[in-house]
Amino acid sequence: MKKILVINGPNLNMLGLREPALYGAKDFKALQQFIISAAEELSLNIELFQSNHEGAIVDKIQAAYGVFDGILINPAAYTHTSVAILDALKAVALPTVEVHLTDISTREEFRRFSFVSLYAQKTVCGKGFDGYKEGLEFLASL
Ligand code: DQA
After folding, report:
1. To test the ligand 1 pocket, which listed residue (52, 79, 106, 115) has its Cβ within 8 A of the most ligand atoms?
2. Helix (H, G, I), strand (E, B), or coil: what is residue 111?
């Protein structure tokens, strides 16, 4: 069974409360449940990790080397700022899918660039929770 690390970045733990007009009314627990169900359907073994700290995310990516077969990551705000997360993904060189709940290409100018997209094999944007399932499907198909 393939092992996939699912990483959610800063403020995603505030789903439900956080700008519901953009991110929806469902909370982070509901997202985690959704990901667990999708993984079960696809016969994937997953670990869920959420952090508000860039270094903690870098540490988790580094620790994935030799343990996981792929990474699904919503880097949240670090998408647009973190060379460190990009470098960590390149270092471990695992198949990686980037996912965003919203369509970052149609929002503010500063959200249009993604460092993580420079490495990720696939990016899914603007599909809400379903985007996580699409990302897992891609990783399962490799
Ligand atoms: C996000 C988009 C980012 O620009 C933002 O900072 C987030 C969430 C998304 O899932 O749509 O925190 O990654």
Report:
1. 79
2. helix
Domain ranges of the chain: 3-141
- Ligand 1 pocket, Cβ-based, cut-off 6 angstroms: 11, 74, 76-77, 79, 100-102, 104, 111
Give the chain's largest Cα–Cα span.
40
Ligand 1 atom closest to the Cα of residue 102 is: 11
The two three-digit tokens of residue 80, written as one number = 């647009």
Question: What's the whole-model pTM score?
Answer: 0.98
- Would you call 23 a catalytic residue per the annotation? yes
User: What is the rounded CA–CA span in Å between residue 84 and residue 60?
Assistant: 12
Average pLDDT, the chain: 98
pLDDT of 17: 95
**15-53, pLDDT tens digit by residue?**
999 999 999 999 999 999 999 999 999 999 999 999 999
Cβ-count burial of 112 within 10 angstroms (0-12 exposed, 13-18 middle, 19+ buried)? exposed
Per residue in 59-80, pLDDT tens? 999 999 999 999 999 999 999 9
Options 3.40.1190.10, 3.40.50.9100, 3.50.50.60, 3.30.565.10; CATH for 3-141 is 3.40.50.9100
